[in-house]
Amino acid sequence: MKTKIYSIITLLFLSLSISAQVDRSKMPEPGPAPKINIGTPEKFTLPNGLQVLVVENHKLPRVSLTLDIDNPPMAKGDKKGVEGFVGGMLGTGSTTISKEKFDQEVDYLGANISFGSQSGFASSLSKYFPRVLELMADAAFNPVFNQEEFDKQMKQSLDGIKNSENSVTAIAGRVDNLLTYGKNHPYGEFTSETTLKNITLQDVKDLYNKSFKPNNAYLVIMGDVDFKTVKKQVTKLFGNWQKGEIATSTLPEIKNPKTTEINFINMPNAVQSELAIINVVDLKMGDKDYYAALLANQILGGGGTGRLYKNLREDKGYTYGAYSGIGASRYASRFKASSSVRNIVTDSAVVETMKEINKVRYQISTQEELDIAKAKYVGSFVRNVEKPSTIANYALNILQNNLPSDYYEKYLANINAVTLEDVQNAALKYFRGDKARIVITGKGIDVLKNLEKTDYVIKYFDKEGNPSVKPEMTLPIPEGMTAANVVDKYFEAIGDKEKVMAVKTVMTVSSATIQGTPLVMTVKNAAPNKTSQIITVMGNVAQKAVFDGAKGYQEARDQKMDMQPAQIEEAKLSMAPFADMAYKKGKLNRIEPIDGKNYFVITFNETEVFYDMKSGLKFQEVKTVKTPDGREVKVPTTFSDYKEVDGILFPHSMGSKMGPMDLNFITKEIKINEGVSDADFE
Questions:
Q1: Residue pair 556/409 in contact by the 8 Å Cβ criterion
Q2: Per the omega criterion (within 30 degrees of 0), is the bond before 404 cis?
Q3: Is the dihedral of CA 235, 240, 244, 247 positive or negative?
Q4: Beta bridge partners of 622
Q5: Cis peptide, bond prior to residue 577, ω within 30 of zero
Q6: pLDDT, mean of each 10-residue run, the chain (682 residues)
Q7: Which terminal Cβ of the chain has fewer Cβ within 10 Å, N or C?
Q8: Residue 79 CB: number of other CB atoms within 10 A?
C-alpha cells in the first residue's frame, strides 16, 4: 500500500515540476512539418498522345472521370463566347443516339456527364461506369452540332447577357479583367450580345475540330476501378481519337500602369461600390518565392484572419468582407484585393486597403501572423491529401507545370521554411501598391466627389471597358418644375388623379424567397395614414408593423416594441394608401441619368424618390436609415412591372436589398376599397 502511495506522490510531483517549466504566456513553437505520404497514380499513354492517370480507391462504389485538354488560352476576338457553344452542345446526344435517349439513359444510371469546350466530366456508381464511359466517349467523339440546338443555346446565352447587363458585380468583373489584361488577351475578353450574334454553327464546329485533340489531353479516373480493366476500356474507347496539330497562341504582353491610378466605371444603379486593387504578376508554382507569396497574401487578405477583413469589416464596418488573392499561372496572373463597400465610404475604403497593402510591403509582419498563415496552409494541405481526387490533381499539376516529382512531398517543408523576411520580399515584389489599378465600379454621383480628393489620377471607362469621360452628375431642372408637378404627372401616368383620390384602402399580397425560404408580405393601407405590414414565413408571422394614425408598434420574434415619438411624427407625415401624396411637399432635388433614362429625384425627409421623366412612373425609393451602431445605410426599393387594377396601374414587382441579400417581391393580389378594416391597425 505504501508503495502505491509513494508512486502516486512521485507522479504528482513530476507532473507539477513539468507544468512549472511551461510558460503558458508564449505560443508553443511549431513542430516539424508532418511527413505526408502522397500516393502516385498509375499512368499510361495511348499512341494518340492521351495521357491517362488512374487512382484506385475502393472505399465507396463510385467512380469519377475528368478530361482536361491542355491547350493554351486563345483569344476569340469578335466571336467571344463560341467556346460556350462547344461545351453546351457536346453531350446533347451523338450521331448514334438521340439527345432524348442519351438523357434518359444517363438519368436512369444515376450518372452525370458534362462538357466544356476543352474538358469533360462524368461520374456514376462503379457498376455502371463501363456504360457511362461509353456514353461519354460517344458524345465527345460523335457530337451532333445541329442548327436547332445551336439556336436554343444562342437564345439562352443572349438571355443570360440581358439578365446581367445591369448587374454591378458582373460589369465590375468583366471590366477589371479587360483593364488588367487588355482587350486582345484571352483573359481580358468578355462575351457580349454583339460577339454572340457574330457566331455561326460553323464557328462552333471549327473550334471543336481545332481544339478537341488527344495529344495534349489528360484523362483522370478516380474511384472504385481496377487499373488493368479500365486500361482496356479506355484503350478501346479513346484509342481511335485522332490526334492533330496542337493549337498555339502568342499572348500579348501585359503591364501594370506606371503609377497607381483609379479606373472608374459609372453604374448609376449601384447601391454600393465594387472595389478592386489589381496588379499583374509573373508567378509560377515552381518559383522559389511561390510559398512566401502565398503566405504574404494569407496575412494580408486570406480570410477572416487577414488584415483587410479585420480593418474594413471588423474595425471600420465598411463592408461584409474584404479579401485578396494571388494567382500562379504558366500564362498570366494577377494579385487582387477586393471588397464591396457602401457608397459613402468608397474613398475611405480605397485609403484603408492601400494602407494595408503598403504596410505588408514595407513593414515586417509579426511572427504570430506568419504562424497562423502557415497553420492554415498546413491544415488545408493535410485535409486535402485524404481525398482521392487530390492525388490525381497533384499528379496533373506536376505534369502540366513541369514540377519536380517530389514537389508535393516537400510542400509542407517549403511552407514551414518561409521566414518573415521572405514574406516581406514577396509582398514587395508582387503586391505593387505603387503600380496598381484601383478599379471602382459604382455610382459616380455618390462617390466621385470624394474620390477626386485622393492623390490618384482618375480615368473613366464605360460598361464595356472603353475609355469614357467623367459622367454627368446631374441635369438642369426645367424652369417652373416642382415636386408637386412631378407627383401630379405620376398620378396621371398610373390612371387619373380623380381615380387615385377615390381610393381609400388598398390591400396588397406579395411573395418572395430568401435563401430558398418562401415569404409572404401582406400590406394594408387606409387613408389618411394608417398602415399595416405583416411578413409570414411558411405560414408563421415573422414580422409585423402597424400604425393607426396616432400610435404604432413593431413586432418580431414574439417581442413587441412601441413606436418612439420621433417615429410617430415621421409616420404621421406619410400618406396612405399612396405615399406619393406626401412627396408633393418634398424638394425636387435633381434630374439623375440612370441606364440611359432620366429621372426626377424628390427628397422627402430621409427618402429619395425617383420618377421616370418620360413615363412619369415611379422607379425607385432610396431611404437612408441608421443601423444600431450609428452608421447610415441606404436601403433601395425598386418598382417595375406596372399592371392595371380597377383602372389604376400598380407595380407588381418590388425589389429590395437586405444587407448582402436581394429580395424581389412579386405581387399576387391587390384589392381596392375592400379587404381592409380598422381592426387591421389595432
A1: no
A2: no
A3: negative
A4: 608, 636
A5: yes
A6: 40 39 54 62 94 92 93 93 93 92 95 93 95 95 93 93 89 96 95 95 94 93 94 96 85 94 94 95 95 97 93 93 95 96 94 97 96 92 80 87 90 95 97 96 91 94 94 84 95 89 93 86 91 89 90 87 88 85 92 83 94 95 83 87 94 80 88 92 88
A7: N
A8: 21
